[in-house]
Design goal:
Jelly Rolls; 7-stranded antiparallel β-sheet; 1 helix; 26 strands; 4% helix; iron; metal ion binding; metal-binding
């Protein structure tokens, strides 16, 4: 079941602060791994699709510069009309769209008209401001994938708008396969540029397989389970859970404990030391940053530009909360 997004809600769901996901992390079998549970988040509307959100949450705001992880589907959209996200704004971030099933049409105020398809990454840089729309194509019957955000560091958060599309080739692992959409893993490097060191890859682990991956010891890593039951080091992870491993390891060992293939998304990066304010579709450094971005979106200034070709109105911003938004980062 999926929401008809229309003008009631953006992809990212209700307006929330950085600490939105409030479940406590689960103690892990291996103290080197923290298990971050998913929180179910309805995206709005009478037929809302529920996504599983693992970042941000109280115990961890970021993994590297990854600051937002939504995992959704598989959802049969044949009876609901599919995804229809009207033009909406972003600041201070990059969006990373990765599908397992389905197809989404993307239009943005940079003038890009592109498609998100399984196994193909679309990375959009908002910089100081961008607007875009997302609409599933008529041929789509099932939507299934992840929507990810990357926080831009202070020195680059006002950079210009940008867009990159890449189709990573599958890389054979001893017991599985990887598709590297950002960074470097298993001898493959994505050409998509990032503003901080990052890793993003879809992994397939064959039934009963154990795979040891060489990784950058300066990176912290998060392993999201889409399907199957796996172990990260010695800690079991269930579907929709995100396992966190701190920096300091040059290998990660993954084991598929099930009798079918497991599908995973591996995220990583150097720890993001800055505090951020994340509300609705904006990332800033202060409450005033968010207020200004909201005001400029509502006033339809040139900051965000216009999306051409979307047959409808753009989304209005929700009301700000009554209390000032406070910057947050990871507890050290």
């Amino acid at each position: 079941m999926i929401v008809e997004y229309r003008t009631t809600c953006t992809w990212e769901g209700p307006p929330v602060s950085t600490a939105e996901t409030d479940r406590a992390a689960t103690p892990a079998a291996d103290p080197r791994v923290e298990v971050l549970p998913a929180r179910d988040v309805p995206l709005g509307g009478p037929r809302a699709m529920t996504v599983r959100r693992t970042l941000p949450q109280r115990s961890r705001s970021t993994i590297g510069a990854w600051c937002f992880v939504d995992h959704y589907g598989p959802d049969d959209v044949t009876s609901t009309g599919g995804m229809d996200v009207a033009p909406h704004p972003h600041t201070g971030l990059q969006t990373v769209s990765w599908l397992f099933t389905g197809e989404i049409e993307h239009r943005d105020s940079l003038g890009v008209h592109a498609y998100v398809r399984p196994g193909e990454v679309n990375l959009m840089t908002s910089g100081r401001g961008i607007a875009h729309s997302e609409v599933s194509t008529p041929a789509t019957t099932v939507l299934h994938g992840v929507q990810l955000w990357v926080a831009l560091p202070e020195e680059h958060r006002h950079t210009g708008r940008d867009f990159h599309h890449h189709v990573p080739a599958p890389v054979a692992l001893d017991g599985g396969e990887a598709r590297v959409f950002l960074g470097t893993l298993a001898g493959d490097t994505s050409p998509v540029p990032t503003f901080t060191p990052l890793l993003g890859a879809e992994l397939t682990l064959h039934a009963g397989a154990t795979v040891t991956l060489d990784v950058d010891p300066a990176f912290e890593h998060g392993l999201l389970v889409d399907s199957g039951h796996v172990r990260l080091l010695d800690t079991p992870l269930r579907p929709a859970e995100l396992g966190y491993a701190a920096p300091g390891r040059d290998t990660l060992t993954l084991t598929n404990t099930g009798d079918t293939d497991a599908r995973l998304v591996l995220l990583g990066g150097t720890p993001f030391e800055e505090q951020i304010v994340m509300w609705w579709n904006f990332i800033g450094r202060s409450h005033e940053d968010i207020v200004q971005a909201r005001d400029e979106w509502q006033a339809a200034t040139d900051r965000f530009g216009a999306v051409q070709g979307y047959p409808g109105d753009r989304l209005p911003a929700p009301e700000l909360p009554g209390l000032p938004l406070k910057p947050r980062g990871n507890a050290r």
